[in-house]
Amino acid sequence: MLFNISYTTLNFICFVFVTMLVYFLFPAKKYKWTVLLAASMFFYAVAGYKYAFFILFTTLSTYLIALWISHVSAYSKKLLKEKKKEWDKDQKKKYKNKVKIQKRLIMTLALVINFGILAFLKYYGFFAGSLNDMLGSFGVSFSIPTLKLFLPLGISFYTFQSMGYIVDVYREKTDAQRNPFKLLLFVSFFPQIIQGPISIYDQLAAQLFEPHEFDFIRMKHGMELILWGFFKKLVIADRAYILIGAVEKDYTKFGGTTLTFTILLYALQLYADFSGGIDISRGVAQIFGIDMIDNFKRPYFSRSINEYWRRWHISLGAWLKNYLFYPIAMSNVFINAGKKMKGTRFGKTAAGSHIAKVLPTSVASLIVFLVVGVWHGADWKYVAFGVWNGVIIMVSIIMQPLFDGAVDKLRISRKNPFFIGFQVFRTLLVVLVGYVFDVAPSFGEGMRTLQLFFTGQNFSAGIEEISKLGLVASDYIILLIGAIIILIASIIQERHLDTDIRTMLDRKPVALRFLLLYLGIMTVVIFGIYGSGYNAADFVYMQF
Predict the structure, then answer these.
(1) Residue 256 near residue 458 (C-beta atoms within 8 A)
(2) Long-range contacts: 113-121, Cβ < 8 Å, 24+?
């Protein structure tokens, strides 16, 4: 990094301010988007110029292959029109199938190239190490060489976003972009490059290229969202990480009580870190008149693990649903498997009929969450994280009639607040088990941690250990107050789904709004975590 221009630095604030001035004062309205492109290229180059080749290669390959697919589509339609009277129905069908296969092969080329680069850079070390361990266990002396590979900034985000665009061009849901520089802006737009959200081309591209005029309300709302993101990141997440980081450095020496507290604190830290970063991204984009999708909708209020994943990292979930889940679940292989099961003796029973019906979706969900686990990191613990979530969702889908029947027999109202509270608490426990594999340094340590939850609890020893992990009483008070503030804001948002809190604040007296803004700024300045040797910009999802 040439100099620190990451999201939570003064350099970044100055960078956004200068970009805003140039953008809104730029005389050629039709080409305002070039200001955003120049800013994005500068940001990426400053963040790490050695990474630029990869994002440029992804953009170029995506651009050329999308045009190729588009050309094949246009030519086939032209030919079909010319041969409309000459070809019979079977000839037309045969030609359409041929074109479909050709387009699919071209699309596959883009997917293999770009996901291949991602897989090699991110997972080569993991697979090489795992294979060497396996060969060693069989007494084989040969070992695959390990390589020192760096991971380009935001590679998972821009790769997923680019490949979503390719699939949409293949499906003819969007036209191929003819201007390579416009496509480069879509791929590299600086507010989202560090940790998303993963945008759909049709949702974001038109906004990027539109010549937005300065809007004071949008700027104010954007700055308020940025401040809220700074509060969550600097005051809460980075303070909580002091303890979590201390535990991660010497994980094996801590007992069950300390590890239990660490996992609970991690739930707060992860949400504050990731959602705070997304708030900053969305706030910056909003200043320029661009609305990016909300990546979080109060996930800890979820009543099922399925609902949790619809509220957490929404853009990743939407991408996986559109480009992985549906193609798998709706494939002939999975549909035929369900039909075959339905035709068996077991399939003719009530339970068997239900399982046959939900088999494609439940197995597809398991595969998707295996991908989610691997996407989070190259380690067996992340595979376990994905399998855990996938199995829980798979079992939930299959067992849903049994659960519903039990609730009906017990005459429990689904609107009963105690029942809702039970569902939320149950879901949170499932989520926390998954978080164990995030925090633990390995799969084995994750399993040991789960065991210690039941066999290694020692409250007095845990309090003594926790007291030596870098946080003092005032830090815990700040964390508690911060968590309460987030909870109150979440409750307000949950009750007023159609109204943004910033819009609600606009209706309050000016003095109250000024006071809240002043308190927010002072809270971040006074209670934010700063200092030499500390990089506040190291977001959890930064290199995904």
Answers:
(1) yes
(2) 113/61, 114/58, 114/61, 114/62, 114/159, 114/162, 114/163, 115/159, 115/163, 117/54, 117/57, 117/58, 117/155, 117/159, 118/155, 118/156, 118/159, 120/149, 121/54, 121/149, 121/150, 121/151, 121/152, 121/155
| Residue 236 identity (one-letter amino acid) | I
Q: Would you say 385 and 443 are in contact if contact means Cβ atoms under 8 Å apart?
A: no
> In what helix (H) or strand (E) does residue 208 lie, and over which residues does it extend?
helix 201-209
Q: In whole angstroms, what is the distance from residue 157 CA to residue 88 CA?
A: 46
> Rounded to whole angstroms, how far apart are CA atoms 32 and 209?
7
Q: pTM for the complete prediction?
A: 0.89
Q: Are 462 and 253 in contact (CB under 8 A)?
A: no
Backbone angles phi, psi at 28, to 5 degrees: -90, 95
378's tokens: 């190259």
Q: Specify the pLDDT at position 222.
A: 95
| pLDDT tens-digit map of 508-534 | 898 998 999 999 999 999 999 875 444
Question: Left, alpha or beta for 212 (phi > 0: left; psi -120 to 50: alpha)?
Answer: beta
Cis peptide leading into residue 197 (ω within 30°): yes
Secondary element (H or E) of residue 60: helix 52-82
Contact residues for 228 (Cβ-Cβ < 8 A; gap 6+)? 276, 279, 283, 520
Dump pLDDT digits (tens) for 9-41. Answer: 888 999 999 999 999 999 999 999 999 999 999
Closest CA to 58 of 111, 134, 127: 111
DSSP string covering 141-191: ---PPP------TTHHHHHHHHHHHHHHHHTTSSPPPS-HHHHHHHHH-GG
Angle between helix 510-527 and helix 216-230 axes, rounded to 10 deg = 40
Chain segment 42-77, per-residue pLDDT in tens = 998 887 677 888 999 999 999 999 999 999 999 999
Residues 439, 248: contact at Cβ < 8 Å? yes
Looking at every residue in the chain, the average pLDDT score rounds to 89
Question: What DSSP designation does 456 have?
Answer: -
Distance, CA of 39 to CA of 408 (rounded, Å): 58
- Amino acid in the structure at residue 344: T
User: In what helix (H) or strand (E) does residue 529 lie, and over which residues does it extend?
Assistant: none
Contacts of 422 (CB under 8 A, 6+ apart): none
